[in-house]
Design brief:
Chain A is α+β, with helices and mostly antiparallel strands. Chain A has helices spanning 11-18, 51-68, 99-116, and strands at residues 2-5, 25-32, 36-37, 40-41, 44-49, 73-79, 81-84, 88-96, 119-125, 128-131. Chain A starts with a strand and ends in a 12-residue tail after the last strand. By secondary structure, chain B is an alpha+beta fold. Chain B has a single domain (2-69), classed as Beta-grasp domain (Ubiquitin-like (UB roll)). Chain B is built from 3 helices and 4 strands. The longest helix of chain B has 9 residues, at 26-34. Classes of the chains: A alpha+beta, B alpha+beta. At the A-B interface, strand 5, helix 2, helix 3 and strand 9 of A face helix 1 of B.
Chain lengths: 143, 75
């Protein structure tokens, strides 16, 4: 499952989807909205996506993972809209026969997602707001 | 034509229909649009056509969905 949703992410459904009887490890990574960012206090976050392309690119990341790591299954769901501090913006579930591969694949999945998936985050502060992403150089090597 | 995040706000719209001439490339589309949306050039991002990242030399065809992608910040 590779999806963009506009409400809370069903982590249990993701976990159930990836687990098979051959697996000794299931890792569920949850990215959550943080209160402090770059020294400022965040009131809430707004996420926007290019849904059709984001789902396609997330599925491509799933294919990359399966080519690189001996994992059983990968699922990635990202949420859009307004998120309050503490709410999950992204959940990645990966199953594998052994934990080492599952941990490595999880790290790879979130790193790649942050590099290439067309999703944008806006931080809302009490005295302003800003789209995040211009401060890093990753987009220049994203293709 | 789809615009997202900072580009969408700069343009005041998320979708545009843009007539292009035969043989037009992504670079031509950028020149055309940057007249009304300078941010596309002053704060340069990536371009996707039909949901795949492409470079400036990519040739456009009638009915293509081009999208201007500011630096991503998901996760």
């Amino acid at each position: 499952m590779f999806k963009i949703v506009d409400g809370p992410i069903d982590e249990i459904a993701l976990e159930n989807e990836v687990r098979t009887d051959a697996d000794g490890a299931v890792i569920v990574f949850r990215g959550v909205a943080r209160k402090h960012s770059r020294g400022r206090e965040v009131i809430h976050l707004e996420y926007e996506a290019y849904p059709e392309m984001a789902e396609k690119v997330m599925a491509q990341i799933g294919d990359e993972i399966k080519a690189k790591f001996p994992v059983s299954a990968v699922a990635i769901v990202h949420r859009t809209g307004v998120l309050e501090v503490g709410q999950a913006s992204v959940v990645i579930a990966i199953s594998a026969p052994h934990r080492g591969e599952a941990f490595a694949a999880s790290q790879y999945a979130i790193d790649r997602l942050k590099q290439v998936v067309p999703i944008w985050k806006k931080e809302i502060w009490d005295d302003g707001s800003q789209w995040i992403g211009w401060e890093n150089e990753q987009h220049k090597t994203a293709v | 034509m789809r615009l997202f995040a900072s580009y969408r706000e700069a343009a005041g719209t998320s979708k545009l229909e843009v007539p292009i001439s035969a043989g037009a490339r992504v670079a031509d589309l950028l020149e055309l649009l940057a007249v009304g949306i300078p941010a596309l050039k002053t704060a340069k991002g990536l371009v996707a056509v039909n949901h795949t990242y492409v470079d400036a030399a990519f040739e456009l065809h009638d009915g293509d969905e081009a999208a201007f992608i500011p630096p991503v910040s998901g996760g």
